[in-house]
Amino acid sequence: MKKLTAALMASTLMLMNQNQAAAETPAANNPFFADYTTTVLGTIPFSRVHNADYEPAVDRGMKLQNEEIDAIVANPDAPTFANTIVALERSGADLNRVLSTFYPLLSADSDDELMEISMRLSPKLSDHSTGITLNRGLWKRIKEVYDNRASLNLDPEDEMLLQRTYDSFVRSGAGLEGEKREEYRRLASRLSDLTTRFGQNVLKELNTYEIWLSGDELSGLPASVLEAAALSAKEKGREGAYRFTLAQPTYMAVMKYADSPAVRERFYRLYNSRNTKGEYSNMEIMSDIADTRRQMANLFGKETYADYGLEKTMAENTANVYDLLNRLAEAYRPAQQREFAEITEFATKSTGKPVKINAWDYSYWANKLKEAKYKYDEEALRPYFELNNVIDGVFGLATKLYGVTFRPNTDIEVYHPDVRAFEVLDPAGKVMGVIYTDFYPRETKRPGAWMTNFREEYIDAKGDTVLPQVTIVMNFTKPTDTKPSLLTPYEVETFLHEFGHALHGLFASTKYASLSGTNVYRDFVELPSQFNENYLTEKEFLDGFARHYQTGEPIPAALVEKIIDTSRFGAGYACLRQLAFGLTDMAWHTATTRVEDPAELERRATEPVAMFDEVEGCMFSPQFSHIFSGGYAAGYYSYKWAEVLDADAFSVFKRNGLFDKKTADSFRTNILMRGGTEHPMTLYKRFRGQEPTIDALLERDGIEPTKPAMPQPVPTKKD
After folding, report:
1. Are the CB atoms for 532 and 397 separated by under 8 Å?
2. CA distances from 231 to 37, 314, 540 (A)
3. 275: alpha, beta or left, given left = phi > 0 and alpha = psi -120 to 50?
4. Choosing from 498, 526, 643, 678, which is the catalytic residue?
5. Strand residues in 190-332 grouped as ranges (E)
6. pTM of the model
7. Which of 125, 173, 188, 302 could lock onto 307 through a cystine, CB 3.0 to 4.6 A?
8. Which region among 4-18, 115-129, 467-481, 672-686 has the lowest average model confidence (pLDDT)?
9. How many CA atoms are closer than 13 Å to the CA of 249, on its beta-carbon side?
10. Distance (Å, rounded) from C-alpha 500 to C-alpha 502?
11. What are the C-alpha distances in Å from 567 to residues 134, 374, 621, 700?
12. Of 114, 139, 128, whose CA–CA distance to 60 is shortest?
């Protein structure tokens, strides 16, 4: 026993010495302590990044930025655009380098340790950010430059940077005095902590679910789904069984294909009751988040957070948002009612008894009706959408429109074996950026799909262009032992969507990172992504890549026609579903007091667009990451807002030609390249020649306009 104890003591002492040595020489080992000059195109050296590197690097980055801020404030020269606004814009490069790695990986390849680190970093980063915006000396210099802006002879991009900087400080409490300043600091720190906890709870609870099905419970499920479930069970040591999770592709497949109503109901209740109780409940947290935001808005004289949050958007105010949502509900409700009547009649005839369409029945019976009506089987289309072919097709869309190409580069390090890296080449063959693709679900990845940046495009102090590095992350059907990843048309549409965001980042041609790429008004950011979706129903596009993964046979014209014919199917349901999300978001953020009954708030908010009976214990707010831990608070309406824009924009391509070079060049130069350098309406009108109307959206969805004619949804008072 004594020898064992001595050995343990010696081992412990050795580890302590190793840890001390590592702590004493962090700069030698921490990849964030210097630029990535040794990597391909300055990409992140993921193999050298360890969880233990983040906190020291963040601490160092904050310290260095504080020194940069102190230097700006202490500058004896009079405040100028260059020595104050641009200097502030360029500050924090070391901090940004670590955070632009940390946060993308926190969503795409996280673990418990990384989540714990994020909880520790959250209050520190919030305090750091608030400390900058509440720095009186810095604010004084910014305000002096802003007050003298008329005499500065700035170009439009410089003017926008000055305006955005000034607005950001004002909206972050710089103009507050006394107790209000300290209250803002406290609320900002609290909000940062709450939003981090909300997002982590969503991911953690999702990973706790596993559902084992057998026998008749498996009836109707496609072979690809069963094969994936069998593989999942095998990985858990249960050969011959079928293990299901609530990962999005699995859940959607069960809801669409499972013949058993009991199985569908079970999955529905599990999926839609997540985070409502237990260890990972978000019920209190989301009320705290919304109320903290409301209190912050009150400090600026706004009654609700929506009043505050919508000021710097195309919508500008709550009245315009509700006008759009309510008019769309009015236009699409008759179509939804006709759809449900047809589905109910079909289900009743199919079963020989009256059928009531519950929330867990819609996808199943809608799919059955679509199959019967159009002879359309989405699963039969999977073989024509093998992932590698789809990559060629989606990337090829950018080649046809804009002349750019994509070259795989295995020398660029990736953060997970599933991830691939591509160099993006301009028409002259010069590298213009890097894109990472991450397609498959895993327990370390949150659900959904998104695009983010490892690095923004900008021009550095030396006058050199810093190339963008973007990543698109999805949760597609994973390959099995016998089949590659075969996508549904919906998954192809998702790919097109996120790729549109990626192009917005890759084409950026701006001086300042904060105005680059997707750094635009929130209700403008979805235009490039949703614009891309339009190509899914275009035969000329599909013919270029959709071919059977085994035979190489091009997708038959009849199947292409089915995709086109069914593109309007369920448009009423789809619209009202999105409106439910938007109305719930607005309800949370127009509340004038703390929400004590989240379930009742959601019920009231969605009542105007409700399509099913209420299901006890089910609600979507506790998993609504877009508004509670993402950037869409009082902004989820922007998906419908952007639909108006994307349908209107695509109508120009429909008129001039799907791949018309002149039209594509105009979209690239006026929309994709300009980021947030000018007001979005100015950019849109420069491309379109006029303001958007809702007509193209209604026509695309086969919806009859309401009478009298619907007004323009986008405010027109700004150029």
Report:
1. yes
2. 42, 48, 37
3. left
4. 498
5. 211-212, 243-244
6. 0.84
7. 302
8. 4-18
9. 27
10. 5
11. 51, 11, 28, 9
12. 128
